[in-house]
Design goal:
The complex is a heterodimer. Chain A is an all-beta fold. Helices cover 0% and strands 51% of the residues of chain A. Chain B is mainly beta. Chain B is globular, with a radius of gyration of 13 Å. The chains are: A mainly beta, B mainly beta.
Chain lengths: 123, 107
């Protein structure tokens, strides 16, 4: 059974950089039918998709965040990562990593999720 | 971006009731819709994909229907363990977008 686990700091100062890692277990990140996604939910708001990335490095991004995002994959560690630059209080959210089932389309749904990690942006 | 409007925002039901949640897309998305269940502190769980296909392991009391712009998630014979937030997601085009969520309370 595929499991995903987010890790990273719970507190980041404004204008600094947020770095999160997702560790995948129970399966390989370098599979042809998977993209690996980052999503977030700010307090009182709905879910927001951030980006999807393939093990080769090919990625799709939410245009609203594209200029501040870097995503990467480390196949040797079975991990993928998110870097969000120049954070503000508006980036305070529960961040999730998830597997996107792309066996039929690169635009798809998420069939395995991590439990999420709360990141607060505050000085 | 495709906007997903979900309603109601909350619903209270008794055990054994039928619960219906609606998701409306701002433009046609064919059958490219998923439904999720999310309990606080846990990982969200995929229930329905392709508008009406039941994800493996999901109880048969959950069902999905609809196409184009209007979609429905139905929970028949709702159980106490179904208390959760439910949300929809369109998978027709990037950026992927989600409905605002429906909080279901089962008394």
């Amino acid at each position: 059974q595929l499991q995903l686990q987010e890790s990273g700091p719970g507190l980041v100062k404004p204008s600094e950089t947020l770095s999160l890692t997702c560790t995948v277990s129970g399966g390989f990140i370098s599979t042809s039918d998977s993209f690996w996604g980052w999503l977030r939910q700010s307090p009182g708001k709905g879910l927001e998709w951030i980006a999807n990335t393939y093990y080769s490095g090919s990625s799709y991004y939410n245009p609203s965040l594209r200029s501040r995002i870097t995503v990467s994959v480390d196949t040797s560690r079975n991990q993928f990562s998110l870097i969000l630059h120049s954070v503000t209080a508006a980036d305070t959210a529960q961040y999730y990593c998830a597997r996107c089932d792309t066996s039929h389309s690169e635009i798809s749904w998420f069939d395995s999720w991590g439990q999420g990690i709360l990141v607060t942006v505050s000085s | 971006d495709i906007q997903m409007t979900q309603f109601p925002s909350s619903v209270s039901a008794s055990v054994g009731d039928r619960v219906t949640i609606t998701c409306r897309a701002s433009q046609g998305i064919s059958s490219r819709l998923a439904w999720y269940q999310h309990k606080t502190g846990k990982a969200p769980k995929l229930l329905i994909y392709g508008a009406s296909s039941l994800q493996s392991g999901v109880p048969l009391r959950f069902s999905g229907s609809g196409s184009a712009t209007d979609f429905t998630l139905t929970i028949n014979n709702v159980q106490p363990e179904d208390s959760a937030t439910y949300f929809c997601q369109q998978a027709n085009s990037f950026p992927l977008t989600f409905g605002g969520g429906t909080n279901v309370e089962v008394k």
